[in-house]
Every structure is written in C-alpha cells, then in structure tokens.
Amino acid sequence: MKKLMFVLTVALLALCSTAVFAQSTSFGEITFNIDVATVPIATGAGDLTVTGLSPGMKWAVIPDGAGGTQDLNMSNPPAVPPAAALTAATIDGDPGANILVSFALPTYLVSPSGGQGNIKLEYNGTSGTWGIDGTTYQYFDPNKDQVMTLDAAAGHVDIYIGAIITVPSTVSVTETYLGSGLFTVQYVGM
Question: Residue 60's closest CA among 137, 139, 124?
Fold first, then answer.
C-alpha cells in the first residue's frame, strides 16, 4: 500500500509539473514615443482704463481692434466725454493653431479704500474683439468661450476687452474702482 501511494504521489507530481511546464510565460515590449509639436502657450496681460465717468452714468466701451475704442454714451451725456484706453491681452503659441479662450471677468468693481457703492460691468457681443495686426478683428461676447486662430506666421493674437459700465448715483465722486479678470487658453483641434 505504501508502494502504491508512493507511485501515485510521484505520478501526480509528474503530471502537475508537466502542466506547469506546459504554461510558459513570454514577455513583450511596448514602446511609447510622444513627440510634442506644439509651442507652449504664452500670454500677456491686457488693460481697460476709463476716466471721466460721473455718478449716474452708463457708458459702453467697445474695442475697435486697434487699441482704440468706440465710446457709446448710454445715459446722461457729460460736457466732457470720458476717455477710455485699452491695452491688448496677447497670446502666443503654435503658428496657425486654433485655441479656445475662456474668460472670468468682473461684474462689479469696488473701491480699494472703501468708497461708497460699486460700479457694475456688463459684457455683450461687441465687448470683446480679437485678431492679428493688419487684419479685420472679430467681435465676440467674452461671457462665452471663444475659438480663435493664431497668426500663421508668428503664432500671435491680440484680444481687447471693453464693457458696458454703469456708475450708480451712490458712488463716491473722487474714487478709483478696481477689478481684475482672468482668461485661460488651450489648444483645440490638434
């Protein structure tokens, strides 16, 4: 009986070891090569400065795409019209690439010294314009994401943002009101 058990144990071990040897493992290799052809996106800050507004006034600053503005008085025409100055926000990247630009813009400006009241800002389809020097600029609503195309030669675009400005009659007369906005940029369609 011991002999039979020994033979069965050896046979079982031989059968199991054959099954183990029959299941061989092979290894393969996967190589990942990633070429990044796009240029990193670089941005530059823009600016909107308006002087000469008075309490109770509503004024629209529409960028003209060349750093100038079309100022539209919407109420209470002043004796001396306000002056607006725009500096372009800039985006540089891969020439000819499409980019998606999103804005987070202020809806109210506040006085850093605690002046009375807030100035309201609104935006519409002529509050933003983008383009390349020497071309026709495109108007857009900065409340909505905007697809833009970088210049095919230099990979550049300029963005100007204006606003519809409402100065309540309750604001401090000799006060500067400040606010800031952000924009984000990403490549699309690549």
Answer: 124
**SS3 state of residue 158:** strand
Annotated domain spans of the chain: 42-188
- Closest by alpha carbon to 90, among 129, 48, 42, 142? 42
Report helix, strand or coil for 183: strand
Element housing 129 (H / E): strand 128-131
How far is it, in rounded angstroms, from Cα 150 to Cα 157?
A: 5
Helix spans in the chain (H)? 2-22
Q: Rounded to two decimals, what is the model's pTM? A: 0.75
For residues 76-95, one letter each, b for 16 or more C-beta atoms within 10 angstroms of the residue's C-beta and e for the rest, the string is eeeeeebebebebbebbbbe
> How would you class 53 by CB atoms within 10 Å of its CB: exposed for 0-12, middle for 13-18, buried for 19 or more?
buried
Q: What is the pLDDT of residues 156-180, one digit of tens each?
A: 999 999 999 888 888 877 788 888 8
Between CA 180 and CA 82 the distance in angstroms is: 21
| CATH topology (fold) of 42-188 | Immunoglobulin-like (2.60.40)
